[in-house]
Design a protein that fits this description.
The complex is a heterodimer.
Chain A: H1 5-11, E1 20-21, H2 25-28, E2 34-36, E3 45-48, E4 54-55, E5 57-70, E6 76-83, E7 86-93, H3 97-105, E8 110-121, E9 130-140, H4 143-166, H5 170-178, H6 185-196
Parallel strand pairs in A: 1-5, 7-9
Antiparallel strand pairs in A: 2-3, 3-4, 5-6, 5-8, 6-7, 8-9
Helix pairs in contact in A: 4-6
Chain B: H1 4-16, H2 23-36, H3 41-55, E1 76-77, E2 87-98, E3 105-113, E4 116-123, E5 136-147, E6 150-155, E7 160-163, E8 183-195, E9 202-210, E10 213-220, E11 233-244, E12 247-251, E13 256-260, E14 270-280, E15 285-289, E16 304-305, E17 309-310, E18 315-325, E19 330-335, H4 337-344, H5 348-357, H6 362-373, E20 377-385, E21 388-396, H7 401-412
Parallel strand pairs in B: 1-2, 4-6, 10-12, 19-21
Antiparallel strand pairs in B: 2-3, 2-5, 3-4, 5-6, 5-7, 8-9, 8-11, 9-10, 11-12, 11-13, 14-18, 14-20, 15-18, 16-17, 18-19, 20-21
Classes of the chains: A alpha+beta, B alpha+beta.
Chain lengths: 200, 415
């Protein structure tokens, strides 16, 4: 009785915000597959992580090392946010004026928290897919927040790796199919290295 | 395809109103619609019924809901699986009848099967047989609609109601209070509080709770209804769950209530969430509130209260509305003044000063607060009411080296 058609039908009306997943740069970089659930124009798009979790939104904390303003008609900002494992490519355009202004205000280098939506794109047919993050919000934070994020993200990554082995969830199955060459155990090593970089 | 059953059903309906129609003729009409025009069978049935009704000058035989959904209207469905705008056939037991609120309604109540219960209404015009509590019925071609967000089964003139031989006992499964959703629900809960009745027709109202949360309940005066005892635990089967202003409440008049010897540790909706503040919503920061006694609504920038109009003698207040995200779920949170002050370090007086003297005014308070909290890790304690946490305390998370060490061990451990 708890999960019947009527309930889910009605629940569609109630808005559920997509959670912001915690993922390290070197895992996000491996994403090759995105998909949409439902046919509605507004249905969320998800990027499938190699550890078998879908994400529509991510939360990252790292160091903004570079920031560039680009375009003249359609101004947008690009930036690089570095975590202990690699680099996130972030961007904010004039369609997200608030995010763009927030990004414009930050001077590199700085610790920043970014809430944004990951997407996969290719420069052209021949080039490798790139994952970039469209910024919804960005804010300057302190080093403590960065360290807390590394703990949080390491824990979430380890959770996913453990789930990956046994879980029969469709997303996990799909990840095994899409990323046959990736053994999630490499992300365990990555998480360890990230944790080891925090000085006590 | 065989249309004789449907044709028979339509013919029977008209027989009741004294018209004899050759089922063969009906079958022909149905066949034409379904086979030539690709009309859904349920829609064809409705259409033919209406057509014939017009021919015989019988008002409103089918219903006007033009969008009969696909799917067979004649195969019995589980009650839990029906959804609004569907034509369905169900088989269930009438577990409660309530007094109809309008002369247009012959009977209303709750019908249930193993999968769950649903409210039903039998229109006076439907000429449906009188149903009695405790009997099983097969209800063919009823329409499910959505009245105030609650699914309900409408028995109209196109519906056939047959009493069944079945005499199965029905044991409803109770759900946790937090999982109740508008419609019909069964819970095992304890009466925590009794309120003064606010209406002369009201027998009792108060709060019920279980491990997962609390809900308001009401019992209206009716012969045979008794008050519940505060502190006692009850099994409540087939109560009506209503929603008002985003809050759920239970109407126990339809319910079968049995006292239970056990006890329940009531959860009271206490919630603790640890996560990152991923969004600070507009309307956060310093706000103006309506000064009228008992109103306290947030005013617009022009000091307009939706009820009391322009209020130049407003009262300032602080609040933060936002989303707290633990990576698995995002929680809607609301921080009140004292929590905002301690989290941001900006007092109401300081915020007032900024609002009145800074060129950006109230926006500046919003921006300063956002910059102080957005993207930060916090732990919030509070009461969860309908997916929103009213936060009592909110603290910045501190880095714990023990947690760090534990994670290093976990990551470095044997794969």
């Amino acid at each position: 009785m708890s999960s019947n058609a009527r309930e889910t039908g009605r629940r569609e009306g109630a808005f559920e915000r997509e959670p912001a997943r915690r993922v390290f740069a070197s895992e996000l970089r491996e994403c090759r597959y995105d998909f949409k659930e439902g046919t509605d124009e507004k249905s969320p798009t998800f990027v499938l992580l190699p550890t078998g979790e879908r994400c529509n939104r991510i939360f990252i904390v790292g160091t903004l090392t570079e920031k560039q303003r680009q375009g003249d008609q359609n101004i947008f900002y690009r930036g690089r946010v570095v975590d202990p494992t690699g680099t996130f490519f972030i961007m904010a355009g004039s369609y997200q004026p608030e995010a763009m202004q927030q990004l414009a205000k930050v001077d590199a280098p700085a610790f920043v928290a970014v809430i944004g939506k990951p997407s996969i794109y290719r420069k052209d047919e021949a080039s490798a897919p790139m994952v970039s993050v469209r910024v919804e919000s960005i804010n300057i934070v302190d080093k403590d927040t960065r360290d807390l994020w590394v703990l949080d993200t390491a824990a979430r990554t380890l959770d996913r790796i453990e789930k990956f082995k046994t879980s029969p969830e469709p997303d996990v199955k799909k990840a095994k199919e899409i990323y046959p060459a990736i053994d999630p155990e490499v992300f365990r090593r990555m998480a360890y290295d990230a944790l080891a970089q925090i000085k006590i | 395809m065989d249309f004789s059953e449907t044709a028979e059903r339509i013919s029977r309906k008209f027989q009741k109103s004294g018209h004899t129609i050759d089922p063969k003729k009906i079958e022909g009409k149905l066949r034409r619609l379904i086979e030539e025009f690709g009309v859904q069978p349920s829609e064809a049935e409705r259409s033919v019924t209406n057509d014939l009704a017009k021919e015989f000058n019988i008002p409103q035989m089918g219903t006007t809901g033009g969008t009969g959904k696909s799917g067979s209207a004649t195969d019995p469905k589980n009650i839990a699986d029906v959804s609004p705008e569907e034509w369905v056939t169900i088989e269930g037991k009438v577990v409660a009848l309530s007094s109809p609120g309008s002369p247009a309604i012959a009977q209303s109540g709750i019908i249930a099967d193993e999968s769950g219960g649903i409210r039903f209404v039998a229109w006076a015009k439907s000429n449906a047989p009188v149903m009695t509590v405790g009997s099983w019925y097969k209800i063919e071609s009823a329409v499910v609609d959505d009245f105030k967000g609650i699914a309900s089964l409408k028995i109209h003139s196109g519906t056939t109601v047959k009493e069944c031989e079945t005499d199965g006992a029905l044991v409803p499964s109770t759900v946790p209070v937090v999982n109740l959703h508008p419609g019909v629900g069964s819970v095992r809960a304890k009466v925590i509080q009794e309120w003064d009745t606010t209406h002369e027709r009201m027998l009792q109202s108060g709060i019920l709770g279980d491990e997962t949360g609390t809900i308001k309940f009401v019992i209206w005066k009716e012969p045979g209804k008794e008050k519940l005892e505060v502190g006692s635990v009850y099994n409540i089967f087939y109560a009506m769950v209503d929603e008002f202003n985003g809050r759920h409440s239970l109407n126990l008049n339809t319910a079968t209530i049995m006292q239970d010897d056990g006890d329940i540790e009531v959860g009271g909706g206490n919630a603790t969430v640890r996560g990152a503040l991923v969004h600070i919503a507009p309307g956060s920061g310093i706000i103006k509130r309506c000064p009228v006694d008992g109103c306290n609504r947030a005013l617009s920038r022009q000091n307009y209260c939706p009820v009391h109009e322009i209020q130049p003698r407003f009262i300032y207040d602080l609040r933060i509305k936002g989303w707290l995200d633990d990576g698995e779920k995002t929680h809607n949170i609301l921080l009140q003044r004292d929590v905002v002050e301690s989290l941001t370090g900006i007092t109401l007086d300081a915020a007032k000063e900024i609002a009145e003297n800074n060129p950006l005014g109230m926006d500046e308070v919003f921006l300063q607060m956002r910059d102080k909290v957005l993207g930060r890790y916090v732990t919030c304690h509070g009461r969860e009411i309908d997916n929103r946490i009213l936060v009592n305390t909110c603290e910045r998370l501190a880095f714990e080296s023990s947690e760090h060490a534990a994670l290093l061990n976990r990551a470095g451990g044997a794969p």
